[in-house]
Amino acid sequence: MLSLLAAGKVAADTVLAVELGREEWRENRALCAYCQVATVASAVSLALALPEARRALRTLRGR
């Protein structure tokens, strides 16, 4: 269950980071290096969290 919650949190963080990057580009026509590193880190975290979340979901469905 914790894996599913963690994956949901990381997914929300990733969506928010991408949206903030879009907003930054629209307003400034520039991208902050720190923000882009945070976006990439969120995306990588999501990619790492998804397999474990899938396994947890299969386990929960199997019960």
Give a verbal description of the structure.
The protein is mostly helical and 63 residues long. The chain has one domain (2-58). The protein is 90% helix and 0% strand. It has two helices and no strands. It has helices spanning 2-28, 33-62. Helix 1 (2-28) runs antiparallel to helix 2. The two termini are 13 Å apart.
The stretches of 5 or more residues where confidence is low (pLDDT under 50) are none
By DSSP (H or I, 4+ residues per run), the number of helices equals: 2
Pattern of helices and strands: HH
| Whole-number tally of structural domains | 1
Structural class by secondary-structure content: mainly alpha
Name the average pLDDT: 95
Q: Please tell me what the overall shape is.
A: elongated
Provide the β-strand percentage band: under 5%
Count of strand segments = 0
What level of helicity do the residues show?
A: over 70%
List keywords for this structure.
63 residues; 90% helix; mainly alpha
Structure in a nutshell:
With 63 residues, the protein is mostly helical.
Layout of helices and strands, plus pairs?
Elements: H1 2-28, H2 33-62
Helix pairs in contact: 1-2
